[in-house]
Amino acid sequence: MNHNKFFSLILGLTATVFSVQKSAAQVDPHFSQYYIYPMGLNPALTGAMDGDYRVSAIYRSQWGTVTSPYSTVGISADMATNRNINVGVNLYNQKAGNGGYNYTNGYFSIAYTGVKFGPDKLQCLSFGFQGGLLSRRFDPYKFQFGEQWMPGTGYNAGMPSGERFEKTTSSVFDAGFGIAYYDMDPEKNAALFGGVSAFHLTQPKDPFLKDGNKSAMPVHYSAHLGARIHLNETVLFVPNAKYSIQGNAQEKMLGAYFQLMANETTDFMLGANWRMNDALVPFAGVYFKGMTIGLSYDANVSQLGKIANSNSVNSFELSISFVGKRRNSIRTDYFKCPRF
């Protein structure tokens, strides 16, 4: 692909991202360092890596100054095979609020990577599927109700609340699907990668509302695009973009980072993402012998940040990922995965 076509694709996605003008909210838990949690971005990225196996973990803290801040943890592990089939598992958990709300998802992912084309068969289309459990629960005993407040004495947890909760836990089957394209040619100065995905295809019902049958979780659609551009022998430039929509909520992110190759085993990364109408996200990371450690900070620029204490709505993320190769590996179709 020549540079003119490449930049036309980047500009086209940029125009699409900027043309949509809805709320910047997000229903599902999400990460600013979204490529660190690949199967949560697109099931087709299962096993797409510059190695044979990968283990990743990421932690996000949000609203750190409130009593019970949002905290989200994602853990994933995946591996590639020599038979065009890659497999993986991923788990994430979000805790939020004084009511002990807990949102946990666990999935098994599988991707087929047998569609290869181009002169040297180094361009790949991958098709991925994931299925698993979506679990939600809360603790009603952590709430305070008006009936439990007594004149003169204040709150009494031993008093009945007058409320009746039919369900406080729920676990249902959930599924997602994705398609990804990536160029594995190591000789190219500019290599594209991207894809589309859809999550919550089963549209699980809300278990805690009386009209739960009408309150189905909307399908979460996502598209992502990026490129690896070699500026010279030691500096890599990686622009990337992501757009996702779920019901009336959406997220639009544009960003880039530079990767400086210090030596054969060590790289340094520095960049930033812009989540439209929400936050500027600077990022720094280091790569050493297969391990990548990254740190990012969401500096809120939304109206909410202006109304509230801006520091209270900011977020930070810490990530760690390790990609390894088997001693007897015979694979040659490695994808140089983005590290931001």
UniProtKB/TrEMBL annotation:
Q: Where is the signal peptide?
A: 1-24
A Pfam match: PorP_SprF
**What keywords appear on the UniProt entry?**
Signal
Q: What is this protein called?
A: Type IX secretion system PorP/SprF family membrane protein
**What lineage is this protein's organism placed in?**
Bacteria, Pseudomonadati, Bacteroidota, Chitinophagia, Chitinophagales
